Amino acid sequence: MSGGLDSADFARIAADLHEAPDPERTLELVIEHACHAITCDRAGLVLSHKPGQLESAATTDAWVNKIDQLQGEHGEGPALWAMQHQATVLVDVIGVDPRWPQWAPAAADLGLRCVVSVRLFSGARTLGALNLYATQSGAFDEDDVAVAEIFARHASIAIATTGEEAGLRYAIDARHLVGLAQGMLMERHGLDADRAFAVLRRLSRDNNIKLRAVASQVITTGLLSKGS
What we know:
The protein is an alpha+beta fold.
């Protein structure tokens, strides 16, 4: 599924990541570029501030957020494994993998079939992991793994460069705001989680404002912008 990127493509990605105006946008761009580089629809980025603990920093949709959260809840999963073993994980059929007896069945029940998890690091310090997800078994191959590892190096540098603790904390807090706003939309407008998240992302793009700002508006006023 890899998109056949060459060195010039990676150079452009690296420049784009380094030119991001703030940590929040850096994390969003990591996810956007990852989906393009590996040609997948769903991806999540988790950060690790303490050994064995994960925080969801950026996702393509609410489904990914749930998959990532399950790893933290169960204390197991491909992202944690990739960080602990300092090795990339490729799993073709999630439901039969014996390494994660709690997470794997729960993730399979949500429709996950295939995953690539790549450790993000700076020197000896583990920053987190990039997770690429698919709902079809065998969706990724060794070429995808190779591209994901190259991409992860660029992403790691960008995150480490922009990632003072306060900046990354601000970005993660933004994710929490988005979750609150998503819940409000689900309750008030009868939307499911994916649809609520899609509405927030559309408002962000259509109005050229940060997802955090859209979420704050929903939380503060309980209202959506015109045209939503």
